[in-house]
Amino acid sequence: MTAWAVHSGARLGTASAPFLGRYRFQLAPSSVLAPAVAVAVLSLQAGGWFERARWGLVSATGYLAGLAWALGLVLVDGEAGLTRPLRDPDNFLSEIGAVRNAPLHYLQHFTQNTAIHSVAARGHPPGPVLLLWALDRAGLHSVLGLALLITAVGTLTVPLVLSAVRGVCGETQARRYATVLILAPYAIWVAVSTDVFTAALGAAMVAAGVRASDRRRTGPPAGAWALVSGALLGLASLFSYSAPWLGLSVVCLYFARRRPFLNIGTGLGALLPVLVADRLGFPWLAGLAVARADYASRIEPFRPVLWWSVISMVALLLACGPALVASMRKMRNTPGWPFLVGAGCAVAFSVLAGLARGGVEHAWLAFFPWLTVAAVAPRRQAGPDLPAPVILAASGAVAAMVIEAVLATL
């Protein structure tokens, strides 16, 4: 698609569409790591282990296997596969020097002069920079150690999403969805992107919303979980301006489960972190306006919206794998449809508003897991459960290994 665009005379504004990075072909002894993890996970699924094992063991295995899968992919380039993105001057890590010993001063002046910020920081709230600064102050000076921590946090989405799917769609579908989630192609960017903090907070928010709306939970316990869900959403909003879209999933879930009053608790919880940040000097809406203005001046004039909208949808398919197609076809057949609504609306808005012009593999990382939930849905509403989609999971794994072999990610 990119080659066709260039051949047609389109000036895409980048030499590496549709992904951030550069193209090369890389095979090394470490290239066997990802295939070994994929074969092990698929063998467990084919042998029925995910169906028989205790749920706690399935969840823990999902996390460890997802962590091994993400690391196995990026280690094709050795240690550089983990550290190269963080060392990039456009990334958040280059920004922590600007914080110095005055995080409140940095917060208060964050929106005043965007030109002094790194490219990544301009399009985000100050949460990622302040978190990296705090980790550095806590003694985490190693770039490799930071990369491993980022990967470990990003992989938390696996057990969190499985927990949410189990609570809404049932344990059988959650067990059969595990393989798709563990071997997702977007794991390539889980190991190299600080947007995983948004993804983990968003997944925890949805999982808390599922717990709040469980029919067995009423009164103060339900209200407390709703408040926690909202607080997590508010925190995620301090890491990404697109995070509030995931709140739509919880709103739809509350109405679908006939618990609409829980929206009050979640709404109040979401306001708390944003209001605290506002009192400390960072007005969230002003930050959003500044980020939009920077985008309008730095990217919009140089990247044609039509070409980039199409290319971004191709990137979405590559990042989610074939499971995305199966999920979209069966969206109506799953009780987990609220998950797809929030993530789907976020992606649709980004494309229709002309904001999807590169880097969607990072920007949409928080939405990817929810877009493939319906891959394990029945063929018709209330129909019999389908077997685990081993072929879909294997196809996605192959796609991930090919992408990692030809792309040095950033």
UniProtKB/TrEMBL annotation:
<feature type="transmembrane region" description="Helical">
    <location>
        <begin position="305"/>
        <end position="325"/>
    </location>
</feature>
<protein>
    <submittedName>
        <fullName>Membrane protein</fullName>
    </submittedName>
</protein>
<feature type="transmembrane region" description="Helical">
    <location>
        <begin position="262"/>
        <end position="285"/>
    </location>
</feature>
<feature type="transmembrane region" description="Helical">
    <location>
        <begin position="337"/>
        <end position="356"/>
    </location>
</feature>
<feature type="transmembrane region" description="Helical">
    <location>
        <begin position="177"/>
        <end position="210"/>
    </location>
</feature>
<feature type="transmembrane region" description="Helical">
    <location>
        <begin position="390"/>
        <end position="408"/>
    </location>
</feature>
<feature type="transmembrane region" description="Helical">
    <location>
        <begin position="143"/>
        <end position="165"/>
    </location>
</feature>
<keyword id="KW-0812">Transmembrane</keyword>
<feature type="transmembrane region" description="Helical">
    <location>
        <begin position="32"/>
        <end position="50"/>
    </location>
</feature>
<keyword id="KW-0472">Membrane</keyword>
<feature type="transmembrane region" description="Helical">
    <location>
        <begin position="222"/>
        <end position="255"/>
    </location>
</feature>
<keyword id="KW-1133">Transmembrane helix</keyword>
<feature type="transmembrane region" description="Helical">
    <location>
        <begin position="57"/>
        <end position="76"/>
    </location>
</feature>
